[in-house]
User: Which sequence fits this backbone?
């Protein structure tokens, strides 16, 4: 079954670390919703009748859309796609956008999962990252979500932040665990080109944390979450049993998915496409029925590298049988690198899968790169 991702490109302010496409302007919301609905309708035959299992509203800040905006989009989805087997319907929300009335509206639309961008429960750190909520608002948002009937709530946290102490990181983890959420996505801060943080890094205003600090913070995260029964099912994602993100898992297991809105990606083996990252151009081209996306057919090398990247990030690992059906040169290369990494104790083989060793998970990106074919 397939997934649907919808990108909402609006923000009130831009976080210092964020490189996802968004604009600090809300005046185009109505026109955007109309164009988005047109794209959804225009592509209604893309899945060839395949049922949709998950829907995910991301951004940007989807919680800036009103109930009326969301209803228009949801109605179009139900009218043109097979949602009879829909299991998970997620929307990303900012803590200071939601209240009991809005949460009730979301539930009435069939949304059954919230992904809340909290990042930290420390006001100093929230200010540093240019988040527009404070710790008290984050706590209240989670409590309101539970009271409104949401029993599948995910929160985002960030570690590896300059000048954040281990004690401050531990406090955020403890606060998150004390709220009874079902899912936690924890990401190491990265300095992405084009972001404020990246520019400040190049100006020596900011400095990346030492590797030893990252390792210590990651180890603390793993220890505390495992202690509370969380499963580390993907390098940055942890959940209580049965609460894996079904939508994100579809990316990692190679399922088909459609992406609507500016910058949204779609995948249908062996092809991938992505919409232009420019709201004005996106709306103009959708309205005038001009091409608003780029497209590629995955090469055999692309398929190999993607299998490595997606597999090693998960606790399931890379299926050896998948690799063994590829070109001989890829199989030989993979086996050589696998033997080396097993000897280094960075990976291990189990039940037909190659996995990253537990104590090496913070180095997953480096390990993946080692397996890549340039």
Assistant:
């Amino acid at each position: 079954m397939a997934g649907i991702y919808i990108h909402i490109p609006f923000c009130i302010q831009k976080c210092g670390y964020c490189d996802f496409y968004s604009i600090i302007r809300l005046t185009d919301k109505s026109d955007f919703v109309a164009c988005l609905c047109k794209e959804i309708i225009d592509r209604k035959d893309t899945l060839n009748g395949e049922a949709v299992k998950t829907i995910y509203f991301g951004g940007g800040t989807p919680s800036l859309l009103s109930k009326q905006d969301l209803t228009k989009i949801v109605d179009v989805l139900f009218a043109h796609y097979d949602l009879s087997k829909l299991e998970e319907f997620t929307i990303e929300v900012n803590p200071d956008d939601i209240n009991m009335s809005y949460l009730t509206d979301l539930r009435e639309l069939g949304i059954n999962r919230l992904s809340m961008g909290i990042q930290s429960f420390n006001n100093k750190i929230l200010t540093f990252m240019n988040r527009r909520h404070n710790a008290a608002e984050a706590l209240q948002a989670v409590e309101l979500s539970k009271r409104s009937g949401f029993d599948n709530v995910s929160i985002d946290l960030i570690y590896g932040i300059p000048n954040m102490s281990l004690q401050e990181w531990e406090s955020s983890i403890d606060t998150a665990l004390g709220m009874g959420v079902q899912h936690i996505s924890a990401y190491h801060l990265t300095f992405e080109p084009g972001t404020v943080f990246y520019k400040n890094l190049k100006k020596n205003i900011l400095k990346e944390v030492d590797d030893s600090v990252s390792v210590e913070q990651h180890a603390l995260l793993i220890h505390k979450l495992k202690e509370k029964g969380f499963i580390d099912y993907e390098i940055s994602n942890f959940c209580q049993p049965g609460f894996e993100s079904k939508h994100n898992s579809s990316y990692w297991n190679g399922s088909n998915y459609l992406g609507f809105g500016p910058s949204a990606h779609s995948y249908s083996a062996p092809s991938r496409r992505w919409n232009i990252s420019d709201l004005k151009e996106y709306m103009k081209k959708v309205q005038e029925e001009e091409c608003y996306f780029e497209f590629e057919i995955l090469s055999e090398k692309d398929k190999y590298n993607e299998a490595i990247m997606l597999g090693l990030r998960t606790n399931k690992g890379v299926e050896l049988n998948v690799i063994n059906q590829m070109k001989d040169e890829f199989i030989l290369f993979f086996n050589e690198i696998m033997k080396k990494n097993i000897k280094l104790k960075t990976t291990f083989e189990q039940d037909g899968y190659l996995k990253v060793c537990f104590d090496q998970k913070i180095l997953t990106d480096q390990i993946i790169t080692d397996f890549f074919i340039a």
Observations:
- The chain has two domains: 2-252, 300-371.
- The mean pLDDT is 96.
